[in-house]
Amino acid sequence: MHKQIPTGASRLARLRRATGLDFHVLVTLLSRSWNVIAGAATVIVLPLRLDSTQQGYYYTITSLLGLQILFELGLGQVIIQLVGHEVAHLDGADEAKFAGDPARLDRLSSLMRLLRRWYMVAALLFGLAAGVAGCVFLARRGDLPPAQWLGIWIIMVASTAVNLMYVPALAMLEGCGRIGQVARLRMMQSIIGYCGLWLGLILGAGLWSAVMVPLASAVSTSLWLRRAHVYDWLLQRVVEPTNRIAWRRDVLPFQARIAISAMSGYFLFYAFTPLIFANRGAVEAGRFGIAMTIFNALSAVGTSWVYAKTPTMAMHIARGERKELNEIFFAVFKRSMAFTVAAATGIVVCASLLSWTGVPQMARIASPGVLACLAFVCSCNCVVFSLAAYMRAHREEPMHGVSVTGAVATTLIAYFGSRGDILSMSAMYAALTAFVMLPWTILLFRRYQRRNH
Fold first, then answer.
1. Which residues cross the membrane (predicted)?
2. pLDDT score of 409
């Protein structure tokens, strides 16, 4: 008998099985990997076209835009879980239109109407509150006159508010299992935005180039949703009053807990750069801001495997398929961890070699010691984020205690640490993650594991 030689197609299929790269994981991974590449390219281009002060304003402004978390209140994650549990019992959930139990279709329809109203109000409040607060904060330092950043800030806040308004439509799609389609949209808008940013920097637009990323996202999402007519039929559906989603009964119990975690997330990941800006100036804020941007992007890429399977995990739970839930989670978790640890280590090694060889651009980024601390935090957070996704797929939020404790401790570390040595501040941040947040999360996760055996 002749031994069959694997064809290119069979090798590709074998590789996809080994890496777990189905359409949704692959596109999510490509989208987030692009953001890492774009962030790295921006790290290179920014110091060439902006001075140290302008660079500090760039990263401080992007950190301040993270305030949208305080207005969204984690509802995006709530939507994915709620929708996932509903469509688990419907047919064709990953298509443009699906069918099944009329009561569940009514609940989805009423949920979409409810969310559209909520997010329109949230977007308006964010635009007003963040716009004013940001102006006051940026004006206090006075390194640049308002004429050089005020218009930029207004456009970026307005664009972010528009993006916030579109969260429910995209989250509904993700909850229905269309993770890959949404990731593809986000990758395209990111490509357009970053190419616009780089072109603006090259042509001498300076800090004004920063508006391209959120502006491109807002415009492209608006055009895509209008052209696709996403789930318009759900909005046109006549809903039986007895089947309507009640906010207090169906949404608030889950959202109240996850909102605390979401608000805490701002202080966990975005508080450092503004506080360094306030206490140490724009130059030092820019150096640390670059480092945080790199590892936040890496963290997003590393958790792509887990994130892409979140709706699937919710559907398994809704159907009581515990064995399938655990199998799929541990498969994607191992891949996420392997990638994150390897990539974080590689970044630190490369940065250390470049610093050792005396590359002048390395003076515009945090020291190798600070990068090592942030790489360790990134690796620990891969575990925390992954285990949290598993627990939240049960339509529960056990992480609020971990998040609040971490947020308070991180803010204190950032506030007092930013007045002194940045490396010591980073080491305390790493210790907090390793000795408090990580073991606490693992303890909570084990309770869910015992439940699902």
1. 21-45, 57-75, 118-139, 151-173, 258-277, 289-308, 328-357, 369-391, 422-445
2. 93
Cα angle value 58/294/145 (rounded, 5°): 10
Other CB atoms within a 10 A radius of the CB of residue 241 amount to 7
Residue bearing the bigger pLDDT, 198 or 253: 198
DSSP code per residue over 161-174: HHHHHTHHHHHHHH
Show the DSSP H helices in 20-101 as ranges: 23-49, 52-64, 68-72, 75-87
Other residues' Cβ atoms within 10 Å of the Cβ of residue 46: 22
Separation between Cα atoms, residue 240 and residue 89, nearest integer Å: 19
H-helix or E-strand spanning residue 356: helix 322-356
Which contiguous run of DSSP H or E holds residue 96? none
Residue 206 lies in a domain: yes
Nearest CA to 194 among 179, 214, 178?
Answer: 214
Dihedral angle over CA of 239, 244, 247, 250, nearest 10: -140
Q: Is the pTM of this model over 0.90?
A: no
Q: Is residue 4 part of a domain?
A: no
Q: Provide the residue range defining the domain that includes 36.
A: 20-451
**Cα angle for residues 261, 264, 266 (degrees, 5° grid):** 125
How many CB atoms sit inside 10 A of residue 195's CB?
Answer: 14
| In a domain? residue 113 | yes
How many CA within 13 A on the CB side of residue 132? 5
Please identify which residue in the block is written with the tokens 């970053």: 194
Tokens of 367: 């020291």
Count, residues in the chain: 453
Does pLDDT of 110 surpass 50? yes
How many structural domains does the chain have? 1
Q: What is the arithmetic mean of pLDDT over 288-305? A: 87
Residue 59 has pLDDT above 70, yes or no: yes
